[in-house]
Structures are given as structure tokens and as C-alpha cells.
Amino acid sequence: MRFQKLLVPFFSAPTLVVMGSTQPQTAADRFQALIATSAQRLSIGKQVALSKWDSKVAVEDAPREAFVIAAAMQAGGLRGLDQTSVVTFFKAQIEANKLVQYSLLAEWYRLGNAPAHSSIDLANTIRPELDQIQTTLIAELADTRTIRAKASCPTELAVAVGKYVAAHQADLSQLDAIALDRALATACSAKK
């Protein structure tokens, strides 16, 4: 199978700050929580794909995407985040998740079946988990507001994602790394 290391959950990020430490965090360190949560969201993409395989529904779900975007705008507004950047960020998250779903579904169609799995309740199990991750992502966007506004953000974020991927290479496939880059492609809010 081409994607043998399929989106293994990688929920825990390494501890970045030691209490009492006088060492300043690098931008790569400060981005790690945002990256890890985005990776966690992507890891759920396999479960979403399996659910859609079973129910024979399309990857595209415009009403759900609109709901996610509206909820993110509202939550971001409450945290003082620019609504346009929140919308752009969550559209990238959604597109990255769809990238995972399309890639996995295509692989399973080529193989003639999906991996063995138990029934997955998209509406009552997966979506509430994604909603909770969205809350965390909003908080992390607020926490990284300053570094995301810097002109150096695209470079610093790319380095941070590379650091994350290198630290988790045993658990990540090429699809995971590509999807993570896509998910975070619009995280920087610096004007170009």
C-alpha cells in the first residue's frame, strides 16, 4: 500500500517551555502547538474518509463547510481575530482535510476496499471532536497573532512545520506532510 503510515494520531507536542527557563522560545517553538493541533485535525481525516466510504457520500459537504467557517468567524471575532484571516485559515484546514480524504478514497478504490474498521459515527463522534479542535485552533491563532503578523512568518512557519515533521517522521506519511503544509499555508497574516 502506498500510504502505509496513514495519519497516525500525533496528539502530543513536546513540552516547549520549562518552568523558570530563561531561554526564549524561537518562532518554530511558538508555532508547535498550532502545528500539532492542525496535525491532530488532519489525523481525523482518515476516520472521516472511512465514514464516507461506508455511507457512499461525497467528500464535498458545502453545508458543513459553511457551518465550520461561520462558527470559526464567530469564535475568532470573540478572540479579536481578523475575520478574513480566520476564514482563510479554516478554508485551508478544510481543503487539507479533503486532500486527505480524496487521497485515501482513491487509494482504497484502486485496492478495491478500505481497511477493516468498525462503524464510524461522523455526526455524533467525529464532528464534535473536530468542533473541539476548532476551538483549540482559534485559541492558538490568538496566541500566535504577533508572530503570524511578522513578515518573516512564512519562513518561520515552514521551518516550524519541517521541525514538526522531522520529529514525527516515524508516524507521518508523505500525505500527512503534504496535507499539513496545505493546512497551514494561509496561517501567516503578514501583508505580502
Report on the structure:
It is a single chain. The protein has 192 residues and is mostly helical. It has one domain: Up-down Bundle (Chorismate Mutase Domain, subunit A), CATH 1.20.59. Helix content is 65%, strand content 0%. The protein contains 8 helices and no strands. The chain has helices at 27-43, 45-55, 62-78, 83-111, 122-143, 145-148, 153-167, 174-183. α1 (27-43) packs across α7 and α1 (27-43) packs across α8 (174-183). The longest helix is centred in the middle third of the chain and has 29 residues, at 83-111.
Question: Could you write a compact summary of the structure shown?
Answer:
By secondary structure, the chain is mainly alpha-helical. It is built from eight helices and no strands.
Distance between the termini: 41 Å
Instruction: Please report the number of helical segments.
Output: 8
Tell me the Rg in angstroms: 17 Å
Share of residues in strands: under 5%
Q: What would CATH call the class? A: Mainly Alpha
Topology at a glance:
Elements: H1 27-43, H2 45-55, H3 62-78, H4 83-111, H5 122-143, H6 145-148, H7 153-167, H8 174-183
Helix pairs in contact: 1-5, 1-7, 1-8, 2-4, 3-4, 3-5, 4-8
Main attributes?
Chorismate Mutase Domain, subunit A, 8 helices, single chain, 192 residues, mainly alpha, disordered N terminus
